[in-house]
Amino acid sequence: MPPKAKSKKKGGNVKSSTVMDGLSTEDMSKDQLEEHIIHLREELDREQEEKSYFQLERDKIQAFWEISKRNLDKTKAELRNRSRERDEAEERHRVEIEVFWTVTGIHATLNFNEIPSTGTGPMAPQHDGTATKWYCG
């Protein structure tokens, strides 16, 4: 914040008076002023308690936010790792199948009508009635 500008007052000492219940502080008796002071101190105490309460609430919310953000980052990292591991496993599986087919001489279309299909997904056998076709995704 920029520094506050200094005000230059001319005309000597100017008193400001607070108006309460229709009376200015200059027009109040000593007892009324003492009561006014007590009221102002009670209000100040209440305001300080509220300020403290709201600061604690703000700190709780900020701590919750930071914990949630760390948890989110941790979960995102786990998801990235699992996705990478899945991609690597899929690639290894694809290579293993290609090597198996190459070594055994099996072609992409096989005749397995006697074997029922129980699998699903991109590597599942697809029956057309006469032959079982295997597809690698």
Characterise the protein shown here.
The protein is mainly alpha-helical and 137 residues long. Helices cover 55% and strands 9% of the residues. The strands form 2 sheets. The chain has a 3-stranded antiparallel beta sheet, with no helix packed on it. A hairpin with a 2-residue loop joins strand 1 and strand 2. The longest helix has 75 residues. The radius of gyration is 41 Å and the shape is rod-shaped. The two termini are 63 Å apart.
Instruction: Please provide the count of β strands.
Output: 5
Shape: rod-shaped
Radius of gyration: 41 Å
Estimate the mean pLDDT confidence: 77
Strand content: 5-15%
Q: What is the percent of helical residues?
A: 40-55%
Tally of DSSP helical segments: 1
Q: Could you state the order of secondary-structure elements as H and E?
A: EEHEEE
The class by helix and strand makeup works out as mainly alpha
Report the biggest beta sheet as strand number plus sense, adding barrel if it closes. 3 strands, antiparallel
